[in-house]
Automatic annotation (TrEMBL):
Keyword Transferase: yes
InterPro entries (alphabetical): GDP-Fuc_O-FucTrfase, OFUT2-like
Organism taxonomic ancestry: Eukaryota, Metazoa, Ecdysozoa, Nematoda, Chromadorea
The enzyme's E.C. designation: 2.4.1.221
Matches recorded under Pfam families: O-FucT (PF10250)
Keyword Transferase appears in the UniProt entry: yes
Protein name per its UniProtKB record: GDP-fucose protein O-fucosyltransferase 2
Xref: CDD domains: O-FucT-2
Catalytic activity: L-seryl-[protein] + GDP-beta-L-fucose = 3-O-(alpha-L-fucosyl)-L-seryl-[protein] + GDP + H(+); L-threonyl-[protein] + GDP-beta-L-fucose = 3-O-(alpha-L-fucosyl)-L-threonyl-[protein] + GDP + H(+)
One GO BP: fucose metabolic process
Localisation: Endoplasmic reticulum
Amino acid sequence: MRVANVVRQLREKGHLFTLVLPPWQGIWHWHNPKLKIFWKELFDIESLNKFVPVMEFNEFTKKKKNSELIIDSIFYLQHYQEGWSESKGFEIKYDIRPCIDANKYYRKSGAKWLGDFSGQILTFNELKCLSIQGQSSTLVDAIIELMKNKQTILIDRAETILHDNFGDVNYWKARISMEYSKKLKNIGDKFRKEKFPLGSEFICAHLRRGDFVWAHKEIIPSLSGAANKLKDLSNKLSLKNIFICTDANNEEVNKITSILNESGLIVDRFISQELSPAEVSIIDQWICAHSKYFIGTHHSTFSFRIHEDREILGHSSETTFNRFCGEKEKEGRECEQPAKWRILLD
């Protein structure tokens, strides 16, 4: 969304760029580093185009098929090697600097640069490493000043910049444009209407496991702890249906399911052998967005995306911004609940 807002601001200033969407790949919990998913398989492209004009990466390369595909420039973003001084604080600034690690990913070939992008070797006229401290608008200024007359620019390491104003109107406009594909929403709707009373009378639990079990062990509940929390919620909300989305292994899933079943709770998951892990994850999010109550995992981007979906759909904060507590955390002050990032539309 940061880069989409860069393109938006460039267009508002008369620089009519189109955002090229790289395929999704290398997502850790897909357990398939070679899996490559185009945006149209997950999102509604027409909706994305309502915020800024977009095109898939393969469409971009097809447009260039009758001529050699050479991109004008790589803008490789990096932090300042010296960091930022405590006396001056965090300054908004940018400078062309010697590359810190870009040479690991791009190599010189004559007068050109070569780099592997989404499994395809691309050719670039130049490589510029930009040390930057700032937001999307800072990058906009840098592009206008330093990339004059460039028609094609690859922005690498865009995570280096911040959102201009996290949670502001343009943040939410970009997020709302990321509507899921009709196909995946229909599959999710069919599943929940078949499984749950009214299609919404259930608790959704996102249990992040995998690397979180050791990387964030202080905030991750045990399986029995998570089950106990769900049993408490079931009693409080008078809901017997639990939908679980998780990256847990089969043994872990069977364990928590067994504990919940013993208490008379009905546990469901969405499983598909035909769909990719990426498509299943979108369907999981869509199902959870419609639950009566959601509880997620602290620090999980997946849980955060569900918070946003539920905000867009109009659910209350009380049924949305909730998370499991770690074994050593006590509910209350020690187990801080997620920040309530409310939707802002004007």
